[in-house]
Design brief:
By secondary structure, this protein is of the alpha/beta class. 66% of the residues lie in helices and 6% in strands. α3 links the parallel β1 and β2.
Length: 369
């Protein structure tokens, strides 16, 4: 029996390796995704254009402007002459933020006379505006600490902010685990559903089913090469994340691979379930895209926080396996936690896998009849 199974797996593997399009999806897509998400899609700001309205024009105000630029987060776009010019930069889309420095900035800085620096941001993009304002506030506060005697004011409470697990707020720490979850889902579920649907579309599935091979051997032979190649992709993405984007694996690598194996089985179960309900490759592709890829990208917490979504979308998000796998990946890779901290998402993935396998088996038997 094992020889038959092994021969079937070798046949499927040769078929995959001869198909250039499949190879491109298997290895080209993960490389492209990890590089695009790592370099292009980022929440960090660099050289955001700002305008400055300097009413003071003294030495300290120039030093503040210089410090804002030297941080690398902001780039001076325009020195405004009056308040009437402030809106023009926003309307043209050339300016992300305006800083208004009051008159007598130098004397107010050293005397603590209630000086206020006004920060104006473009609220049409709330997330960007909020982040830019926070950056600007931190830099102005740091400048005041360097120049002013804040300790002499009894009503000022110094604030110390710390960021655990990602002190530099690198976006790659979020995108690399999310990309791993997405890649495993695409390769394990989408390609599996496509390859089985292709057999049904070309009529070769009926030939296989009437052969001496047990249906379980046929299904396992189909999905095993994709499971192995998915692990190759996991290791590939982890190496790229570590050596190019400095994303560490603080926790146990063995536990990480075991959890990845569970997620691969879950995704394979989804793929085979989709294939039992699809008659053509196009049908399988549409079901995979609409049912797996888009919801996993949007509702899993990969890009947008799940807790900030409406209740209905939060419920849908908790039905997606990627939601729990991303939680597991971040726990192991970034926080270095063990199974005692991730047992809940682990058990949910196990439950999902059992339910999906039962549904697949039931649906497959109905199709055979």
């Amino acid at each position: 029996m094992f020889k038959v199974f092994w021969a079937f797996v070798k046949k499927e593997t040769y078929h995959i390796l001869r198909d250039k399009r499949t190879l491109l999806i298997l290895f080209g897509m993960p490389l492209a995704q990890i590089l695009i998400f790592g370099f292009a899609v980022t929440n960090e700001f660099k050289n955001a254009a700002i305008d400055v309205l300097d009413h003071s024009k003294d030495q300290e105000s120039k030093q503040l402007i210089q410090q804002m630029q030297s941080s690398g987060y902001f780039k001076l776009h325009n020195l405004l002459k009056s308040e009437d010019e402030m809106e023009a930069g926003f309307k043209n889309g050339d300016t992300k933020l305006v800083m208004v420095i009051p008159a007598n900035f130098s004397s107010a800085l050293y005397s603590n006379t209630g000086m206020k620096i006004q920060i104006i941001a473009d609220g049409s993009d709330p997330n960007n505006a909020n982040t830019l304002v926070q950056y600007a506030n931190q830099m102005i506060h740091r400048f005041q600490e360097q120049k002013g005697d804040l300790s002499s004011n009894p009503y000022k409470i110094p604030i110390e902010t710390r960021m655990l697990y990602n002190p530099q707020l690198r976006s790659s720490y979020n995108f690399v685990p999310g990309t791993i979850a997405l890649i495993l889902l695409i390769i394990s579920a989408m390609l599996t559903s496509l390859t089985i649907a292709k057999e049904k579309e070309t009529g070769t599935m009926e030939i296989l089913l009437v052969s001496p091979l047990h249906p379980l051997i046929i299904i396992l032979g189909k999905v095993t090469p994709y499971a192995v190649l998915s692990f190759v992709d996991v290791i590939l993405v982890l190496l790229i994340g570590y050596f190019i984007f400095d994303v560490p694996v603080v926790g146990s690598l063995i536990l990480l691979l075991i959890m990845s194996a569970l997620y691969v089985i879950t995704a394979l179960s989804l793929g085979t379930l989709i294939s039992t309900a699809s008659k053509t490759q196009q049908d399988a592709m549409m079901r995979s895209l609409m049912g797996l890829m888009l919801p996993s990208m949007i509702l899993s917490g990969f890009i947008f926080p799940l807790t900030s979504m409406p209740l209905v979308l939060q419920v849908l998000g908790h039905l997606i396996p990627a939601t729990y796998f991303i939680e597991i990946l971040k726990g192991i890779m970034l926080r270095g936690v063990g199974l005692e901290f991730i047992w809940k998402p682990f058990l949910i993935l196990v439950f999902m896998t059992v339910v999906l396998l039962l549904l697949t088996w039931k649906n497959f038997k109905i199709r055979l009849q």
